């Protein structure tokens, strides 16, 4: 069994793939396994991966996997998970990279702490700018209860840190069915994944280790595209609310789930101009319906405690949805 499996999905990232692959070489060990998953790239990425797989095989265990059609990042990660043999697992996206030796240090921290998963801070890269983004957890280097890290409802917490590549996960989570992604979600797939991990894993920790570089603004990233795929966040949060409603601590956790859902709806409504016109209209209609689906008593409490601008926008949307339903 390899000590670590690194799952890296690629899709049309030819300008950035060499940096990613170079960083893997600078992290390679004979007991590390690199799973390079090409999600049917059409820009030459496939040929870069074919060459790199041969070169990396001299210093690590490597598998080059290719989809026969574009299936999305969730399916690509799942392909890697299905093939992974490591005791620990790490995700990295095909446009990002790692500092030299980062993976060995990360595995050492995970082995020392012995918990289900460890989250790390990250460095966000926008053109030439570098910004450190930290896990919103104060205690570092201590084993914690992931359920307790979901709250408080009115603050940014660990479930809002949805960078799946900024961490390492023990294989027992994979065996418990907690690491696969919903491949039907084209965006926001990391949201229900992160919530499920915090509800069902038994232990986690945060380390100050800094070595993941996340490249913002990659042209192929769906977060930059204002088409209908962006609306998958609604299905993602519907799932979060549904699963949290069935949780043994639903009364405690639902306010956080509903509050975050509302905040994301308000965020997208504020960025109305980035969407195609038909998608923007659909966003309003579907967001109004989502507000009607939420537990109304919890939603009332959330809207009473949100800032006035977002609360007023969401209340107007809910009233319009109610009026439309009554008229029908």
Notes on the protein architecture:
- The chain is of the alpha/beta class.
- 43% of the residues lie in helices and 16% in strands.
- The protein contains 11 helices and 11 strands.
- The protein has helices spanning 17-25, 45-56, 73-83, 102-113, 171-175, 190-200, 232-245, 250-270, 277-293, 296-305, 308-327, and strands at 4-10, 32-38, 61-66, 88-91, 97-98, 117-120, 122-126, 129-133, 167-170, 204-207, 212-215.
- It has a 7-stranded mixed β-sheet with strand order 3-2-1-4-9-6-10, sandwiched between helices.
- Helix 1 links the parallel strand 1 and strand 2 (32-38).
- Helix 1 (17-25) runs parallel beside helix 2 (45-56).
- The termini are far apart.
- The mean pLDDT is 94.
Give the secondary structure arrangement, pairings included.
Elements: E1 4-10, H1 17-25, E2 32-38, H2 45-56, E3 61-66, H3 73-83, E4 88-91, E5 97-98, H4 102-113, E6 117-120, E7 122-126, E8 129-133, E9 167-170, H5 171-175, H6 190-200, E10 204-207, E11 212-215, H7 232-245, H8 250-270, H9 277-293, H10 296-305, H11 308-327
Parallel strand pairs: 1-2, 1-4, 2-3, 6-10, 7-11
Antiparallel strand pairs: 4-9, 5-11, 6-9, 7-8
Number of strands: 11
Radius of gyration: 20 Å
Question: Low-confidence segments, ≥5 residues, pLDDT <50?
Answer: none
Mean pLDDT: 94
- Helix coverage percent: 40-55%
Shape: globular
The spatial strand order of the largest sheet comes to 3-2-1-4-9-6-10
Measured by DSSP, the beta-strand proportion falls in 15-25%
Structural class: alpha/beta
- What sequence of helices (H) and strands (E) makes up the elements? EHEHEHEEHEEEEHHEEHHHHH
Question: Helix count, per DSSP?
Answer: 11
Q: State the end-to-end CA separation.
A: 61 Å
For the report, how would you describe the main beta sheet? 7 strands, mixed
